[in-house]
Design a protein that fits this description.
The complex is a heterodimer of chains A (about 110) and B (about 120).
Chain A (H helix, E strand, L loop, with lengths): L3 E4 L2 E4 L4 E8 L5 E7 L6 E7 L2 E5 L6 E7 L2 E7 L7 E8 L6 E2 L3 E5 L1
Parallel strand pairs in A: 2-11
Antiparallel strand pairs in A: 1-3, 3-8, 4-5, 4-9, 5-6, 7-8, 9-10, 9-11
Chain B lengths: L2 E3 L4 E5 L4 E3 L2 E3 L5 E7 L5 E7 L5 E3 L5 E5 L4 E6 L8 E10 L5 E5 L3 E6 L1
Parallel strand pairs in B: 2-12
Antiparallel strand pairs in B: 1-4, 3-9, 5-6, 5-10, 7-8, 8-9, 10-11, 10-12
The chains are: A mainly beta (about 110), B mainly beta (about 120).
Chain lengths: ~110, ~120
C-alpha cells in the first residue's frame, strides 16, 4: 500500500471508552503529524513527531495521548473523550517539515 | 499571534471564469507557504508551495500563487477554472517561530464551486 493510511475510517465511542487511532506512512518520511478537522474551524495541528520524538504539542488535552514507535507508525490513544472531540482526525507525514502528505482521516463520533 | 487568514469562505464561479483566492498570514519567523486542495471525497493534497526564490510559483492543474512579502500574502490564481476544480482550498504556513517552536498553521479554507 502506498501513501498514508489510517484506521479505522470511522469510530463511534462512548465517553468512558478507550480507543486508539492508527496511522501508517509508506513514504519513507521522517516526520508525522496529527490534526483535528472540525466543521467551520481551521485544521488544528495537535502533535508533531520528528525522528520519533515529539516536537510539538499544541496545548492538546491529556485525554489525547500520541505514540510514535517508529518513523512509519503513529498512534493517537483516546480516553474519556467529550462530545466536542467529535471531528475528523487526520494524519500526515513529511520529509524534513516540508510538504505534507495526508491520510484519509478517521471520522470520530463521541456519544 | 501566528495566523493564516483566508478571506473568501465560499466562492461560486462559472466555467472559464478567472479565480483568485486570498491568503494573508501573520508569522514571526522564516516561513514556507503552501496551498492544499481537498476534492470531494478525497484526501488533502498539495497544490503548490513556496520555500524561496521566484515568488511566483506554479502548481498542478494550471494553478499559480504569488508570494508578496511586503503584504504577507500568498494568493492563489487560475486564469480559467473548470468544473473539476470544485473543491476546498487551504492556505498554510509552516516554520520555526522566534520562540523556537515549530508551527504548521492552516487557514479556514475556501469552498469553491464551479458551475458547468
Amino acid at each position: 500500500e502506498t501513501g498514508v493510511t489510517q484506521t479505522p475510517r470511522h469510530l463511534v465511542m462512548g465517553m468512558t471508552n478507550k480507543k486508539s487511532l492508527k496511522c501508517e506512512q509508506h513514504l519513507g518520511h521522517n516526520a508525522m503529524y496529527w490534526y483535528k478537522q472540525s466543521a467551520k474551524k481551521p485544521l488544528e495541528l495537535m502533535f508533531v513527531y520528528s525522528l520519533e520524538e515529539r516536537v510539538e504539542n499544541n496545548s492538546v488535552p491529556s485525554r489525547f495521548s500520541p505514540e510514535c514507535p517508529n518513523s512509519s507508525h503513529l498512534f493517537l490513544h483516546l480516553h474519556t473523550l467529550q462530545p466536542e472531540d467529535s471531528a475528523l482526525y487526520l494524519c500526515a507525514s513529511s520529509q524534513e517539515f516540508g510538504e505534507q502528505f495526508f491520510g484519509p482521516g478517521t471520522r470520530l463520533t463521541v456519544l | 499571534a501566528q495566523s493564516v487568514s483566508q478571506h473568501n469562505h465560499h466562492v461560486i464561479l462559472s466555467e472559464a471564469a478567472s479565480l483568485e483566492l486570498g491568503c494573508n498570514y501573520s508569522y514571526g519567523g522564516t516561513v514556507n507557504l503552501f496551498w492544499y486542495v481537498q476534492y470531494p471525497g478525497q484526501h488533502l493534497q498539495l497544490l503548490l508551495k513556496y520555500f524561496s526564490g521566484d515568488p511566483l510559483v506554479k502548481g498542478i492543474k494550471g494553478f499559480e500563487a504569488e508570494f508578496i512579502k511586503s503584504k504577507f500574502s500568498f494568493n492563489l490564481r487560475k486564469p480559467s477554472v473548470q468544473w473539476s476544480d470544485t473543491a476546498e482550498y487551504f492556505c498554510a504556513v509552516n516554520g520555526w517561530g522566534t520562540s523556537g517552536t515549530y508551527k504548521y498553521i492552516f487557514g479556514t479554507g475556501t469552498r469553491l464551486k464551479v458551475l458547468a
